[in-house]
């Protein structure tokens, strides 16, 4: 039995020293020391030994186990270190390599313009309101002094959903909604940015969906000069302090009198050039004094209250401010176009 044990030890040590594979090393351990291993097999036969022989063989067996275990552990550590070193080498990061820049997004140009305009009016005490894009005929037209069959409805080609429901053609219905909500009881000072829809063929200056910002100020003693002063501040803050504004008579059913506001051309400052088509002025927005009928339908007594309103297209503002020449650039999401306007 002693020879048997020595043979097992010799074989185990030999195999342990030969292997360079950590998994194989584990298998070797099991082969010799495992429950069904050869050393265990020999020990099982010890029952047949005499009382005197048993401790002697037992001691040898323990020594053999210790020798195999020690050899295994030593080799295991060696292989683990080797494995780790290999891993460290193959997964090493070269910290001296230049980094890859992180791509940072930014707000869409249209979003930035709308936010800029919002901030400007918030600074003048306006609140920002929203309204539904699917609107009723009443709010989109009737409450704005555009009764059914009124010829001015033709100014805004409309997507109708039913006879009474439509996609709003402008943000002006939010004027009517706000006045009715305030029930003629308190002043209104609001702007409303949002999407609007018209049955237009898309080209460089038209889109079936675009953006508008509506403005409405209703209070006692609001005058035309208040409108002019407000628009002057807006134009100067938006386009530069040197810009002049000009109000031209115009027509909108919801305002009386109605105006169109121009700003002086930034290239020729009013003398005329090809940017302003020789006029010296560039059209920006429409506005006017809120029509008494609109005030009345909104619940405000036109004998007590007066107001001004205006409506503008942020796309147009952005096009003029940044020299964008095709409105479709705002909607096609070409990153090469958009990223020019990301502020660093
Ligand atoms: N709603 C008009 C449009 O879409 C713009 C407009 C003009 C709004 C005059 C107003 C206004 O509030 O007073 O063409």
Automatic annotation (TrEMBL):
Residues 109-340 form the Aminoacyl-transfer RNA synthetases class-II family profile domain. One of its GO terms (molecular function) is phenylalanine-tRNA ligase activity. It catalyses: tRNA(Phe) + L-phenylalanine + ATP = L-phenylalanyl-tRNA(Phe) + AMP + diphosphate + H(+). Mg(2+) binds at residue 256. It is found in: Cytoplasm. Signal peptide: none annotated. Its main location: cytoplasm. Its EC number is 6.1.1.20. Keywords: Aminoacyl-tRNA synthetase, ATP-binding, Cytoplasm, Ligase, Magnesium, Metal-binding, Nucleotide-binding, Protein biosynthesis. It holds the Pfam family Phe_tRNA-synt_N. Binds 2 magnesium ions per tetramer. Its cofactor is Mg(2+). Tetramer of two alpha and two beta subunits. Belongs to the class-II aminoacyl-tRNA synthetase family. Phe-tRNA synthetase alpha subunit type 1 subfamily. This is Phenylalanine--tRNA ligase alpha subunit. It comes from Oceanobacillus longus.
């Amino acid at each position: 039995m002693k020879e048997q044990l020595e043979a097992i030890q010799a074989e185990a040590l030999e195999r342990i020293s030969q292997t360079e594979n950590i998994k194989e090393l584990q298998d070797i351990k099991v082969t010799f020391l495992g429950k069904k291993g050869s050393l265990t097999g020999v020990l099982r036969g010890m029952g047949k030994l005499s009382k005197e022989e048993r401790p002697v063989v037992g001691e040898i067996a323990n020594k053999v186990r210790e020798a195999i275990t020690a050899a295994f552990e030593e080799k295991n550590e060696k292989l683990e270190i080797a494995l780790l070193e290999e891993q460290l080498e193959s997964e090493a990061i070269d910290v001296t390599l230049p980094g890859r820049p992180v791509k940072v997004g930014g707000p869409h140009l249209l979003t930035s313009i709308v936010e800029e305009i919002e901030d400007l009016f918030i600074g003048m005490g306006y609140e920002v309101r929203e309204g539904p894009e699917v609107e009723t005929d009443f709010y989109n037209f009737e409450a704005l002094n555009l009764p059914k069959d009124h010829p001015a409805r033709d100014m805004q080609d409309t997507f109708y959903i039913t006879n009474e429901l439509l996609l709003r053609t402008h943000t002006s219905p939010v004027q009517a909604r706000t006045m009715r909500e305030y029930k003629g009881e308190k002043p209104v000072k609001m702007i409303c940015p949002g999407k609007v829809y018209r049955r237009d063929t898309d080209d460089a200056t038209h889109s079936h969906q675009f953006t508008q910002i509506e403005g409405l100020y209703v209070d006692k003693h609001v005058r035309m000069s208040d409108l002019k002063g407000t628009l002057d501040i807006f134009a100067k803050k938006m386009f530069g302090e040197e810009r002049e504004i000009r109000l031209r008579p115009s027509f909108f059913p919801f305002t009386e009198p109605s105006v169109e506001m121009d700003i002086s051309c930034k290239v020729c400052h009013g003398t005329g050039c090809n940017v302003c088509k020789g006029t010296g002025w560039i059209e920006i927005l429409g506005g006017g004094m809120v029509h008494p009928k609109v005030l009345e339908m909104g619940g405000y007594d036109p004998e007590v209250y007066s107001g001004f309103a205006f409506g503008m297209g942020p796309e147009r503002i952005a096009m003029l401010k940044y020299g964008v020449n095709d409105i479709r650039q705002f909607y096609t999401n070409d990153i090469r176009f958009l990223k020019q306007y990301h502020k660093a």
